[in-house]
Amino acid sequence: MRRFLALVVLLAPFATPKMPVEEFRARRANLRKALDGVLVLFGRVEGRDEVFRSDQEPNFYYLTGWSQPAARLLITPTEEILFLPHHNERAERFQGKRASAEDSGISALTGFDQVLPIEKFETELDKALASHENLYALATPSVGAGTEKLKARYPFREISDAAPHITKLRVKKSPAELAAIQRATDVTLQAHLSAWKRMTPGMYEYQIHATLEDFFLENGCEAVAYAPIVGSGPNGVVLHYSVNRRRMDRGEVVVMDSAAQCDGYTSDITRTVPVGGKFTPRQREIYQIVLGAQKAAIAAMKPGVRLSGDGDTLQKVAKDYMDAHGKDLHGQPLSKYFVHGLGHQVGLQVHDPNIEGPLEAGMVVTVEPGIYIPEEGIGVRIEDVVLVTENGAKILSGALPREPDEIEKAVAK
Ligand SMILES: [Mn+2]
């Protein structure tokens, strides 16, 4: 037994824990506390003959942890019901066994006291609406069909967007969510290190992509959080480059923006590394300025400050740093080459929903300044995942080197 355990530990250094149903039940309880009506969500429905991937509609997943298709959720201040489709023998021959409301143990499996077959949905919704005026559903296109049906059934009822109510909860991460994001982050940063180790001049961008993705899956994560960006030389100035077909040569820098999704949660990390292990003096200069801007922004981060946008934001802190520390080939300041936002929320989605207003403790955001100068063929971005704490910030991806000397040492060939 002991030998067996040792082997398991060896093979799965990052075994994936599954978030317990109690976590999702607690989220619904939080939502109900502030709910002044009926909230309805439609889970993703699979297409005909589709190889169904369990990427559930994120708000639905946030509140249920349920990833099987065609489920529905009804929540009022006093009750919550999960609706499931019936067993379909033929579909299950293709897709594997699925759960249904009549299964024994369905409450324990789903974490819902009430699980009903899907045909009870209209009756239960009618009942709930008989004593509540307000009706909330998602207005987003991915579940638009469900909301359209609601409108058709209740033409005189105002239907408000449910998203802001759920987003308010989603932006503040629970301890279980922080653990999940940390795990995705740990696997991701190990994957970056493994890609650096493999990288040699003459290799192709897709080989780095392969190493990253392989590492994620090998360590129990289920997917990439987004298409990996491996942009060498001139490709480094293309923000969302993900073609990854080019040969990487000595003397170029490569922007590597890639992260894993593990148990539904994502990370988001970028490093810019020199092919062959040595920055040119100009690359190092730009790199140091981006790094300095990132450090300045993180040092100024705390609850109450705003991340991006106009005015007094962390984005301005980063831009001011860039302008104070370097010039382009025409003697112009550098912040005009920082052409995107400083960061975004991270969670179930790599771009988790945002709320208007300042940062709050418990939010997880990226801090990702970049300078992209097409004329010089230099693109540098450094991106870390950061938790806003009561009085500052904690870098969750801090174990991955950022200092240029450390990076040169790690990739040197
Ligand atoms: Mn990002």
Helix and strand arrangement:
Elements: H1 2-11, H2 21-33, E1 37-42, H3 58-64, E2 72-75, E3 80-84, H4 89-95, H5 106-110, E4 114-117, H6 121-130, E5 134-137, H7 144-153, E6 159-161, H8 163-170, H9 175-198, H10 205-218, E7 223-224, E8 229-232, E9 253-258, E10 260-262, E11 265-266, E12 269-274, H11 281-299, H12 314-325, E13 364-367, E14 370-373, E15 378-381, E16 384-388, E17 393-395, H13 404-411
Parallel strand pairs: 1-5, 3-4, 5-6
Antiparallel strand pairs: 1-2, 2-3, 7-10, 8-9, 9-12, 10-11, 13-16, 14-15, 16-17
Bound molecules: manganese (II) ion.
Overview of the molecule:
With 413 residues, this protein is an alpha+beta fold. The chain has two domains: 150 residues, 3-Layer(aba) Sandwich (Creatine Amidinohydrolase, Chain A, domain 1); 237 residues, Creatinase/methionine aminopeptidase superfamily (Creatine Amidinohydrolase). Helix content is 36%, strand content 17%. It is built from 13 helices and 17 strands. It has a six-stranded mixed beta sheet with strand order 4-3-2-1-5-6, with helices on both faces. A three-stranded antiparallel beta sheet has the order 7-10-11, covered by helices on one side. It starts with a helix and ends with a helix. 41% of the residues are buried. The N terminus is likely disordered. The structure holds manganese (II) ion.
Element-level helix/strand string = HHEHEEHHEHEHEHHHEEEEEEHHEEEEEH
- The CATH first-level class of the largest domain comes to Alpha Beta
**Through-space gap between termini:** 42 Å
Rg:
24 Å
**Count of DSSP helices?**
13
